[in-house]
Design brief:
This protein has 223 residues and is of the alpha+beta class. The chain has six helices and four strands; from the N terminus they run H-H-E-E-E-H-E-H-H-H. Helices cover 65% and strands 15% of the residues.
Length: 223
Amino acid sequence: MERALSQRPDLKANLVNIDVDDLSIKQAANALRPDLSLTGSYISTGRGGQFFERTNVFAEGGTRSTVVNVLPGGLGDALDQLFGFNYPIYSFGLTLRLPIRDRAAQATMADAMVSKRLNTLRARSLEQTIRQEVLNAATQVESSKASVKLAVVNRDLAQRVLEAEQKKYELGVNTIFFVLQAQQRLVNASNQLVNQSVLYRRNLLTLLRVTGELLETRGIAVQ
């Protein structure tokens, strides 16, 4: 019975849905917890254009600074400084998120829990259905097997009766009517054996189907 439960694809699909519900519940629970994030960045810059070197930059009393040197520059210098990482910029930050009265996250959590509850109930109901199907199919297989054995006995008995009637007819102590009657009984018994054999095979296939072993028995592998 446990093997049948482990082989049924419909039950497997339902159990997968329960696992998905568990992941949804965990995700919703994480959304309801405080979240502290640490961020960091690194930027390289390039400074292009002419650079004026001055004196008395911080002079007071109205004294103007004096340009003492001019350093030429351009796009090439900016790109050289950019890829040479001459002027890097570092930045760091902390972000704290407090989900106070997050109605969306609470609704998501409630939906996930309800979905898991429903899928769990479906799985239990499906397990009971599978158990009942397996028991019924096994009973039908045993019943049809006994019917096949009985049909074999009836066929053999009809065959012996026919042989006896034929011998009586050959000895002249019987008429052709009894021989034909015995032949008809043998035909009926043979037909009954065929019907019971077909029914047994059908019930056996049903048992393999409800136990989830039909494809494996036929050598079919589903990837």
